[in-house]
């Protein structure tokens, strides 16, 4: 009997000790270990198949005053999947391409089957392979997309892209644009995709600017016509980007790729107040950003009547404009002439899948360190806007879109390991937040 009482006492003691320890452990938990510190007004999103259904969260999209919501478009806004309340920044712009196609959506592969571009010197060209890629196992990229080779016309792809751009905190996607019926040498016309891109961007609270590409016959007059077309057709859309200057004026902003192909005297007819078909002061007045490649281009850009310059290329040292060491001098020139300087940064560069002879311009990502070095160089010159090259230019290996490891019988693709597929989206967000913190200090 005594032995039974002793066992009962021991059991009671152990049970009491367990309860005491549990209570003490609960007391050490911080409020942040639960849900008590969610931002005010931020509701828990419903879970569907283990993922957050962001389409079920409705809040008013932020359209600029005077901008109409697109007719029939969904006004639900998708919260970004990272960052405080899905914060995005409209001073971080990212270059975006809609030139991809697949047999299922487009009847054939487009761009994923890119040709191997021959070198212009026949002697050098003879040392390298010719032909074209054979998707889906062999694509015109050194990386492989997590979405697999996709069609830019796929609504699910568009939705994923907008979600990823929102996750990166970039607020403006800069859409590569050709006039109706025109395309690059390896693509198909895609101007009819613009409304879908605008609507998808709108649902995610993103804005869209236009990147006017070179095409046969492009000149100052044709670009004038392009600008009128774009503003007339899309200018009232809630996702259409307008840049607000320090004077408070709000105007559309256009990037003009390879602007140096047209002489400054011709641009001045379009972009200076006294030009023969000047856009200045009209309903189509805008902010026009030219590409600086060579040092002399800065003077041509000024003479042509442009409002600023960008550098585009993600290969540091490839050109005068893309060399980080020159950005301070370019910024000083721009400041002295009331121009915007918009540096372009990228996570790396490798285009040998389509230009096998161009290995000397490859820039290794170094697990993100190359990207961070470029971002720091951009912040050092205190720009108004930073551009990211690119979201999905897979041919040149500048994409920050999610990629995955891939190995075939004939190829081993590069990937983001040891980091995950979101690594460059996360780095972009971190630096976008840092950029805006620093901008607040500059203003002070």
UniProtKB/TrEMBL annotation:
> Major place of localization?
Golgi
Q: Where in the cell is it found?
A: Golgi apparatus membrane
The record ties this protein, via InterPro entries, to: Glyco_Hydrolase_99 (IPR026071)
- The identity of this protein, by name, is Mannosidase endo-alpha like
Recall the GO molecular function terms of this protein's record: alpha-mannosidase activity
What organism does the record attribute this protein to?
Seriola lalandi dorsalis
What CDD domains does the database record attribute to this sequence? GH99 (cd11574)
Of which family is this protein a member?
Answer: Belongs to the glycosyl hydrolase 99 family.
UniProt-annotated stretches for the region Disordered:
56-77
